[in-house]
Write a structure and sequence with these properties.
heterodimer; A: 301 residues; mainly alpha; MetI-like fold; 0% strand; flat; B: 311 residues; alpha/beta; Rossmann fold; 8-stranded mixed beta sheet; 4-stranded antiparallel beta sheet; 23% strand
Chain lengths: 301, 311
């Protein structure tokens, strides 16, 4: 019965000039737009949310938690509690305070490494791609040699060769990622230098270096910028990995890799919290950068 | 002496014995608009690029010379000495010919800065003035825009502003309106024409549109298969085409074509006239290269049919 009724109702409007559907663009509020964007890009949104929390933690955190270096022999190895959210370690230091302070250090190092590697790598890459010829050949063979080593091993070798300091860790890890950026930027520069605007720039009398850096470089940066997000994540991992092997950043600095390294032995005796929490922070931080970088790379946005 | 003389331009792939352009010659007088006409792949753009020394990678000029006011534009070591104040160019795709990451005002300003040795701010002011001059409404605002924020017609006006900003002696316009709306075409033609007469520069106008040629040009060089078929003042060419190819080209517009040419490819290995195998008047001698024959002081045709005693 019900079906028939709807059927007749449908046909009756066909005979008259009844406008059945009018397209009215839906007025979406900002929040609804944001929500539908998040639904469409769940991993990216998780990545951004994670990254924002880490940034908040790194900026505000250290002021709110206690001194990461203050020892308390009376309170060693206390398990996670309301007082010590992540418990305390062998010297009675608050693991939460250390992990939060480490967030600031690790994120800044990761960003610094990605930035240094991108700036140097892109500059070399654009020169190599734009000018081509001998220069290109030499640069490419050098990157081949460097890329033949896994980034981690290369960073390990360089840190070991340099004196141990924070700056040297940044230099070493950045150097390990430079060839990667050289390749990316060079490939794009090869495309961009054939574009008409590059011709036009040469035509009006710009010097070759100016065409390369003012015209071709900005247009060749896209792949490098996208990869910089991924590299930031990898850099955090590499720095932590080096610290875990007691290369680079040394105890008692509050750094995730140092903390995992110090706490690794505690697991056997049952004090899992000293290494698990900083380890989890590393995982989350690397994941955040990976989610963002992955979506950017596939141009889903 | 003409303003620009291009003589015997021969261009080919590096290492290939078959030339893409074969002995292309034309000349431009001050204030004159020369149209290079021909179908796709006839070598119009290639001839312009070779004149400017802007040949793409893997293509080289093997013979010939381009002289501006009697001066070669290539120094003895083979370096291009041309400056933007001598020759500049308007490209086919205005949006692609502007740097997407630079504000248009700076792009125009940069040209002025390089060629007139002005400071950055003065050059930018001059650029804004120039933008107004090419008919862009609200030039101060537009100067701060990036190319993707502007329409194709606006971008082409900006390209034109860039091209004429340093008052070149020769302006090359490579199909300046093919990427644009028909309604914008006429405006761009008028703009190029009025700016050219204002500066007094010669214009090389590349197109495949004979309507545009009739409207714009003073003289025409008809190209086919990398060879100049006929060079002539535009009125005479339209009234009395001498080369068979020119005739077919004109007929193709009025739909008077009473024959179909099946094979439209150009055989670059051919020694003789490159139009030979499509030409209905072809005869035995056409398997040799036809020289450009002067049939009157300002007309020349590259065809054996123009000889006093045809075979």
């Amino acid at each position: 019965m019900n079906n028939e009724e709807t059927h007749t109702a449908g046909t009756s409007s066909d005979s008259g000039f009844v406008v059945e559907r009018v397209y009215v663009p839906e007025e979406k509020s900002r929040t609804r737009k944001a929500l539908s964007f998040m639904r469409a890009n769940p991993l990216f949104s998780v990545g951004v949310a994670l990254l924002l929390s880490f940034v908040a933690l790194a900026v505000l955190g250290p002021a709110l938690v206690g001194d990461p270096l203050r020892t308390n022999p009376a309170n060693m190895y206390s398990p996670p509690s309301a007082d010590h959210w992540f418990g305390t370690d062998v010297y009675g230091r608050d693991v939460f305070a250390r992990a939060v302070n480490a967030a600031r250090l690790d994120l800044s190092i990761g960003l610094a490494i990605a930035l240094v590697a991108m700036v140097i790598g892109s500059a070399i890459g654009v020169v190599s791609g734009y000018f081509g010829g001998r220069v290109d050949e030499i640069v490419m063979r050098m990157t081949d040699v460097l890329l033949a080593f896994p980034g981690f091993v290369l960073a390990l070798i360089i840190v070991a060769a340099l004196a141990e300091s924070l700056l040297n860790v940044v230099i070493a890890v950045a150097a390990a990622y430079v060839p990667y950026f050289i390749r990316l930027t060079r490939a794009q520069a090869l495309v961009e230098r054939e574009q008409e605007y590059a011709d036009a720039a040469r035509l009006v009398g710009n010097k070759p270096f100016r065409v390369a850096f003012r015209h071709v470089l900005p247009n060749s940066l896209r792949p490098a910028l996208v990869s910089a997000t991924l590299v930031t994540g990898w850099a955090v991992l590499t720095v932590a990995g080096l610290a875990f092997l007691s290369v680079g950043i040394q105890p008692p600095t509050a750094e995730w890799g140092v903390m995992v390294g110090e706490g690794a032995g505690d697991i056997i005796t049952g004090e899992w919290w000293t290494s698990l929490f900083p380890g989890g922070m590393i995982v989350l931080a690397v994941m955040a950068f990976h989610f963002i970088g992955d979506d950017l790379m596939e141009e889903r946005l | 002496m003409s303003l620009l003389e291009v003589e015997g331009l021969t261009v080919g792939l590096v290492g290939s014995p078959y030339p893409i352009l074969r002995e292309v010659s034309f000349s431009v007088e001050p204030g004159e608009i020369l149209a290079l006409v021909g179908e796709s792949g006839s070598g119009k753009t290639m001839a312009a690029l070779a004149t400017m020394g802007l040949l793409p990678l893997g293509i080289e000029m093997t013979d010939g010379e381009a002289r501006l006011e009697g001066q070669s534009m290539v120094d003895p070591e083979g370096r291009v000495t041309r400056t933007a104040a001598q020759i500049s160019m308007i490209f086919q795709h205005p949006v692609g010919a502007l740097n997407p990451t630079m504000r248009v005002g700076h792009q125009v300003g940069r040209v002025i800065q390089i060629n007139q040795e002005l400071g950055r701010t003065e050059a930018l002011e001059a650029a804004v003035e120039m933008l107004g001059h090419v008919g862009i409404p609200g030039p101060e605002r537009v100067a701060r825009n990036f190319p993707h924020q502007l329409s194709g017609g606006m971008c082409q006006r900006i390209m034109i502003a860039m091209a004429v900003a340093c008052r070149p002696r020769i302006l090359i316009a490579d199909e300046p309106t093919t990427a644009l709306d028909v309604t914008v075409q006429a405006q761009i033609f008028d703009l190029i024409k009025s700016l050219a007469s204002e500066i007094g520069c010669g214009v090389i106008f590349i197109t495949h549109d004979l309507g545009a040629v009739a409207e714009m040009a003073d003289r025409v060089a008809v190209m086919y298969g990398g060879q100049v078929m006929e060079e002539s003042p535009v009125r005479e060419l339209l009234a009395d085409p001498r080369h068979p190819y020119t005739r077919y080209l004109l007929e193709s517009i009025t739909h008077e074509v009473d024959h179909r040419v099946e094979d439209i490819g150009v055989d670059f290995a051919l020694r003789g006239c490159r139009f030979g195998h499509r030409c209905l008047s072809a005869h035995g001698k056409c398997n040799q290269f036809p020289p450009l024959l002067e049939i009157s002081p300002d007309r020349s045709v590259s065809c054996f049919l123009q000889l006093e005693e045809p075979i």
